[in-house]
Amino acid sequence: MKSFDQLYVELLAKAQERPVGSKTSELLDLGVHAIGKKIVEEAAEVWMAAEYESDEQLALEASQLLYHLQLVLIARGVPMSMVEEKL
Q: 39-77 burial, b for 16+ CB within 10 Å, e for fewer?
């Protein structure tokens, strides 16, 4: 189990290290367009889970959406502090 902030720190480290075989590295190498497509896919899955599936499945889908949202921010170089300013 990890927090939102812990995930962000982990993704930042992977973005710098680019470990071979990492899905995170692969998506970062593919760029914002590929990550954006995953965001759209995961957002739809969150919606479907909210409508038709268990709370556990909804939480899983939401975690995947949050992962991809953080990843696109990192890919663009947008710090989390900029997002927090907008909350």
A: beebbebbeebeeeeeeeebeebbebbebbbbbbbbbee
